[in-house]
Amino acid sequence: MIINWYGGSCFKIATPDFAVITDADSSASGGRLKGDLFVKTESDLEEAINNKEDHVILGPGEYEFQGVKVRGQKETEEKDKIITAYKIIFEDIKFGLIPMSSEMLSEEAADILSDVDILVVPGNEFGIKFTKRIGPKIVIPADGNQKKFATDFGQTVEPEEKLVIKKKDLEGMENTKVVILNK
Q1: pLDDT digit string (tens) for 26-76?
Q2: What does the DSSP 8-state code read for residue 160?
Q3: Closest by alpha carbon to 137, among 92, 78, 86, 106?
Q4: For domain 2-178, is the CATH number 3.60.15.10?
Q5: pTM recorded for the entire structure
Q6: Which secondary-structure segment (H or E) carries 40?
Q7: Contact criterion met (CB below 8 Å) for 73 and 55
Q8: Strand locations in the chain, DSSP E?
Q9: 30-68 in b/e burial notation, b at 16+ Cβ within 10 A?
Q10: In the 8-state DSSP scheme, what is residue 146?
Q11: Interior angle at CA 53, CA 50 and CA 58, nearest 5
């Protein structure tokens, strides 16, 4: 599995045969990305209600598309938008995605994300606290002060172009590893 970051909360999580794109519209280059499944953490409420595309996930619920399982937990619903945290299970790796606008998460979302292997969080104090609370094997801070984030975990981290990971690489990891990706 290869994970690339395109800015904001736009990530591409890919294998040679399948790609999940998160929040493509949060990055200038995200709209040009090719993928099989698209997941959005912040959606226009009307768009989410009227979505008929099975390869586009815009809100809470349980989904399965070509063997990839997704569970979304609604965080907030404002007048015109819905904000959702997700757990995506792809090639036996559990990937958690927290909306970048989150300042806190519901207990339901925290429970869903409590066993993720890889977690994407905002690179702020909330992201640090939440990561320490659930202890994923790998955390990827998106935006914010990524260097400070790593320092809070006692790590000095150099940015990488991409994260290449297999399930066997995660086995035996006891401490959370901070990975910073270049845009």
Answers
A1: 665 656 888 999 999 988 777 766 777 778 888 899 999 999 999 999 887
A2: B
A3: 92
A4: yes
A5: 0.91
A6: none
A7: no
A8: 2-5, 11-15, 18-22, 37-39, 42-44, 56-57, 61-65, 68-77, 81-90, 93-97, 118-122, 138-142, 163-164, 177-178
A9: beebebebbbbbbbeeeebeeeeeeebbbbbeebebeeb
A10: H
A11: 60
